[in-house]
Amino acid sequence: MWERVNLSLTVSADFAAERKVEFKIVDGEREFGVHTERVAPGEYLLQINVTNFVDRKQVPNGTWRFVPSVDGVPGAAADFDLDDLEKLDDWSRVYLYDGNKSSYVVAFGISEDDHPVLLMRTYQLARAGGGGGTAARATIVTRLRGKLLNRKRITTVLNRWYRLCRILFPPPGNRILFASEMRSGLEGNLLRIRDRMVERGLDSQFTFAYSFRVPKQGPEHSNWRGTLQVIKLLASSDIVLVDDYMGLLEPLELAPQTKVIQVWHAGSGFKSIGYSRFGSYGSPKLTNAHRKYTYAITGSEQLRHVYAEAFGIEESAVIPTGLPRVDTFLDPERTERVRAEFFEKHPHLAGKRLILIAPTFRGRGAPSAYYDYDQVDWDALYRMCGDDTRILFRAHHFVPPPVPIPEHCADRIFDFTSFPSGNDLLHVTDILVTDYSSIIYEFSLLNRPILFFAPDRQVYEATRGFHREYEAAAPGKICDTMDELIKAIESEDFDLWKVAEFRQVNFDRIDTHAGDRVIDWLILGNPAEHIEAR
């Protein structure tokens, strides 16, 4: 019935097939339409995304009845089979969020009358204080109230500054802001879009602005002066391109004319993000920066619903342009140049089979990121290498350096975390070893083996969560232990056929024009025209 935040409910209603049947949820004078699909004679499937139900908001607080209408004429509320009472508790959900200080409850029950009808009760609850006596509770409540008022005051100040900047530095109609709160410079999808606009001479039509700051790197990147400068840039720009979560968007009441385009840095990976994690480890609040996007991009029509759920936006706002950074990744001339330059700088690796180990981080985000290197048996990997194989280890950029490679292993295993481009590193990689990273996205285009070393996947799934079932989605063999990983490498047991299936799901097009599609569809034109023409 549930997939994290999506409720699917099958109801029985005996209407003729030619009648138009739609269900609504009704609470007094309030009513909202529910996606209704006839799945069998007398059976209808109702689907609700409880965190993105209407106007990018959750189902409002209330006690809701499910009411059908037939050819526009409302009928009686759906009743409930009392033989299925035990199902009501199984259907109900409690989502903790905001650091477990708040909860969103979806509870199913029946009405208390002679002919009970099915009810869905929704509540937003917030913790006001704890135990320790009246005085202690009063102190806690006072502190919480003070923090809340302070937060509101800060939000008011930020929005006043934003509106003032709109007046003093109005958008000229052609300014594009390239921004990231996770990276210190232009790279990835943002870099390709900017470079492609320059190649097409569009830099004479548009002016470019840039904002890059990484709070983890120190207070100079996240102080008040820097924050006010970013707000000024947001206020004075017509189009904002971001490539990761940008928390500053959340409190701002952005002008409706501002187009915010999320060119998410990752392709299709395993990790649940945004509202796909609602109620679990690191869950977002019900109001969140992700909801501010005018558009978000993805690589495939089949993934639009995944990104719509994650960002809490409509599927129509998710546009399958492909990822612009793939354009340069697939350029054959550039690939040869990258390979030649790599082996010129690292001649000791020429002629060797290169295995890239590139795990993602654990933790809630950049400030708490880590990787458990105790999972790695360095000596076993060293012995496996022999004379013909070398290992390049690349930690996630959130994880503090260095990689703790033992000194006696350093002639066969190398730390490549600081290598400038992860995608360039893929071009010299013969076998990729990862866990839950989206690095598989580009590497799948090379049709080379991918192995998955995921000894903590049960814990990871329980805390972080996956978009899709890990075993079904992983384009390669999954290894739970280091012994299994080494055996798979030595026996070349790769399940390479899974890579082709992965490409089919994740890429509508394999070409070098994704950057052009972002520019033409989202910056210059109307994306709806292109989607409808597909």
Question: Could you characterize what this model shows?
Answer:
The protein is of the alpha/beta class. It folds into four domains: 2-126, no CATH class; 128-166; 169-323 and 514-532, CDP-glycerol glycerophosphotransferase, N-terminal domain (Rossmann fold); 331-506, Rossmann fold, CATH 3.40.50. Helices cover 30% and strands 22% of the residues. The protein contains 16 helices and 22 strands. The protein has helices at residues 85-91, 133-168, 188-199, 224-235, 304-311, 325-329, 332-345, 378-385, 422-426, 440-443, 457-463, 470-473, 482-491, 497-506, 514-524, 527-532, and strands at 2-3, 6-12, 21-27, 30-40, 43-49, 62-70, 73-74, 93-97, 102-110, 118-126, 175-180, 207-212, 239-242, 259-262, 295-297, 318-319, 353-357, 389-393, 413-415, 431-434, 450-453, 477-479. Strands 1, 2, 3, 4, 5, 6, 7, 8, 9 and 10 form a ten-stranded antiparallel sheet that branches. A six-stranded parallel sheet has the order 12-11-13-14-15-16, sandwiched between helices. Strand 15 (295-297), helix 5 and strand 16 (318-319) form a beta-alpha-beta unit. The model is unreliable at 217-221 (pLDDT under 50).
